[in-house]
Fold this protein.
Amino acid sequence: MHYMIRIIGSLDKYRLLALAVYCFVVSTAGAQDIYWLQFANKEASVFSLDNPALFMSSNALARRAAYDIPIERTDLPIPTAYIAAVDSFIECKYTSKWLNGMLGAIQTSEAIDSLLALPFVDTVFMVKTQSKSKKRRGKGVKGLNKGGDRMYGESASNIGMHGGIELHSYGFQGQGIEIAVMDNGFQGMNNSGYLAQARNDGRIVPVYDFVDDDPDVFSEGSHGSLVLGTMLGYFEGQIIGSAPLSKAYLFVTEDTDSEGLYEEYLWAIAAERADSIMGIRSVINTSLGYSTGFDIADQNHTIQDMDGNTTPITIAADLAARKGFLVVNSAGNSGNDAWQYVTAPADGDSVLAVGATTIDGNRVSFSSLGPTADGRIKPDVMGVGYDVLTTSPYGFLTYADGTSFSSPLVSGLCASYWSAYPELTPFEIFSDVKRFSHRFSSPDNEYGYGIPSFFAMYMARRTAEANGKVELYPNPIVEDKFNLLLDTDERESIGVVLHSISGQFIYEESFNTYGAATIDIPVSLESALLKEGVFVIRVYDLQSGEELYDKKVVIPMR
């Protein structure tokens, strides 16, 4: 993996131990090469899709039911008969029902031959050697500046561009939403003062270190510490994360000492665990990406692999979305590299890939580009990924750059928005984030659909709910006109006024209507009066002065 980060705060030197056993055998001493065994089918399964309660958790079933998601063969466990049959040849570490395979240690080439001779085994190949690869590390340290917002401190810049502070001010801060964080470890977050509120509320859940086969996720690895702080950090006057009242589930899937498909399979296995333990309204944030630099060089991905259907982690990420998660991923930091493009799993069509901008909305040059190999726009949206204030593993705040941080900032804002409208599906959240981004009408492969305004999203839905008979579109305004559909109850003359929230007059016109009417309202988006924000349109009876409608219209950042 290439960390989606250019560190500007000091980090510890990562150290992770060799993977221990997870399936049915005890661990063996010493480092071992790890293989992936791909099963050909699940024909020996003793379970039926008609009775999923026998093999799926109540949490997973509740999510499927909430979003009307069918149970499918990827939900079936790997047949126990298959696992028993291969037990003599591979020391099982983990299994993945979604990808229908197993990670494990194999001692001899004869064992591989024996496995390949089995009719239900498709392929067997090494995914991790004991040779060590050097991970990309960040450079330098930035000190903290003085000032900032009275409540948010310097972290106001993290989410201010996205309307996050306004959304929070309405009371929506991620409460009731759960976020899985897949990373390399969360060192120091079990005692950081900046996470104290979340810990005391029981909203930090250490799930598992799949690299070390250990429940301790706090001892090593600090990239995840930085990521977590952008979402759940809370200390008034210093830092408030993008979803300070959400609940975080912590998974270690990134092996800092190696690089390869092994980590992609660990991600899939962790996502399956998340599926079984997390609630209905759940987000997966991953600030990791995979392309080249693998320990096993011939397993490096190619640009052609970034088609949304090839790499193991992308397949698993799309499956997670299909099973009811909102999946958010950093687009990658390859914009200045020969690779240049988004990295897996950001290429997934169901993965919300987030690039990086400055606080002024300008793309940072390292932010990975699109399109995908099959021609789709990527990244999907952009978030602040430069000079992001976050928590260090050593008890202080620090700044860091990278799509590693734009991704969790957007993940957290998605959670905060979702807490305002818990009836929405993950797909509707995904769609709203793109639709309320400033380049929605003209996306490209640098900014994707642009910079989302989460407060605009919130206000648009709130307005629509309050004005059920009226339809105003497009809202937000993206062209030099919008349409107002209304029923005037046979009134013949109406007036239409557009003004700012503060009452500043912008536009007024009168119309003759007969019953139901459609009115085109011309506006100039180049007008200095029509900057980003929420505006009010009022419709009234010209004869009596009676107010007929009062509706808000949103102009997103352009």
Observations:
- The chain is about 20% helix and 25% strand.
